[in-house]
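I'll show one example:
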Amino acid sequence: MEDKTTREIADALQRDWELQLPESLSEEAILAHLANRIVSLIESGPEAFFQLMYRLDISEKKLNGVLEEEDVAHKIARLVYDRQLQKIRSRQLFRDTNPAKEDEDLSW
């Protein structure tokens, strides 16, 4: 079952991580695709991977903690997914609390 937020996360991940995802996908399936992409990025050269982590503002402390555990790719995928979710919720909150007001003098 996919909801609007899951679709937004999938769209962001497709754009930022160059993932090819089907239209309808569960959270677990998205995490599996993302984990595979993470492995691919790390194996081909970690620079691109670390640039993405920086752009997504993934905490270095959290990332270092995960790098010391087993199943690293899936745990990093979870960090990325959760960060995307946090960004989407923040945007939704901002939209809900600050609705755009039309100002006739400022409209094009």
Observations:
- The chain has a mean pLDDT of 85.
- The chain has one domain: 4-95.
- The two ends are 41 Å apart (CA to CA).
- Residues 21 and 29 are 9 Å apart (CA to CA).
